[in-house]
Automatic annotation (TrEMBL):
PROSITE patterns: SM. It comes from Peromyscus maniculatus bairdii (Prairie deer mouse). This is Sm domain-containing protein. It is found in: Nucleus. Residues 13-56 form the Sm domain.
Length: 56
């Protein structure tokens, strides 16, 4: 039997998990291995992220 969110509260869908981190400082590693630090403001359906106060 597959677990669902009512029986396992620690299981989230990927977009639900990202939604929990809005407003947090994040460290993002790009495909080019460049690291970007910033405050996570939001994302769209394609998981394009919006960050502010970014440092490289």
């Amino acid at each position: 039997m597959a677990a669902n969110r009512t029986t396992n509260p620690w299981q989230f869908l990927p977009l639900e998990l990202m939604d929990k981190y809005i407003g947090s400082r994040v460290d993002t590693v790009m495909e080019s291995d460049k690291e970007v630090f910033g405050t996570f403001l939001g994302f769209d359906d394609f998981v394009n992220m919006v960050l502010e106060d970014v440092t490289v």
